Amino acid sequence: MARTLLAIESSTDWLSLALLSDEEVIAFEVFEQSRQHASALLPGIDALLTRTDVGLDDLDAIGIATGPGSFTGLRIGLATVKGLALGREISAIGVSTLEAMAFSILEGAELEGAKEIENASVGIQAEGVHEVVALLDARRDEWYAGGWSRAEEPGGLPIEALPEGLYSAAKLIEGCACGVWMTTPDTQSWRRTCEEAGRPPGFIVQGKRARPRADAVGRLAARRLSLGQGIAVSDLEARYVRRAEAEAKRLGAPVETGEVAHLDSESPSEEA
Fold this sequence. Notes:
Blueprint (H helix, E strand, L loop, with lengths): L3 E6 L6 E6 L2 E7 L6 H15 L9 E5 L5 H15 L5 E5 L1 H10 L8 E2 L14 E9 L2 E8 L9 E10 H7 L5 E4 L4 H9 L5 E4 L7 H13 L4 E2 L12 H7 L21
Helix pairs in contact: 1-2, 3-6, 4-5
């Protein structure tokens, strides 16, 4: 029996929503005006469900991007999901924002218009995307990044190829295979990062078509739900990666435990 999922992507400036029946996208909505999550999210969900004649009680699960990304956007999204699920039998599936970005490329959804980088490694073909590194600008010359390769079988989950974390330019390129695909909403800083490290990526999907999307979040959530990975909504947690500036100053620890290995020792960081 098909399961109905609501998917939310609120972890960056660009809010989007999707309604799915298993992996089939029934409806998809993007809010082009950035940073309006607090005012747009609940009305957007209500409009989406009304348009598709689906009620909250009809939902089997809610998939949500859990970061890394905007502290404010993540908190708004998670608080909204917990409020919607209150008193209802709805499972939750948290999905990495970076994994959802990479998944869009691995599944071929955003290949049209991808740009081959000058001096890219010989042998990389647009139709042969096997590994993608997703980037979000964390500012202070650092990146939220993670890499995934294709699932071993159709309908499977992507395989982690580069551990998700906070990276300096040097550490990022050091961890990437030569000629790897990259995807990022940024259109400038990534190029400087690669130039500093002396290694260009093979291909880049950038700008608007590289933004995280709720439909990709929903499809990944559907796959995880089918594997029994749904959790109680109350157990959802954000994947901040970097601490808020106030917390970092109070604790004297600029990044989350486990992320320090991805940074150059001389590069302290605060909230983007």
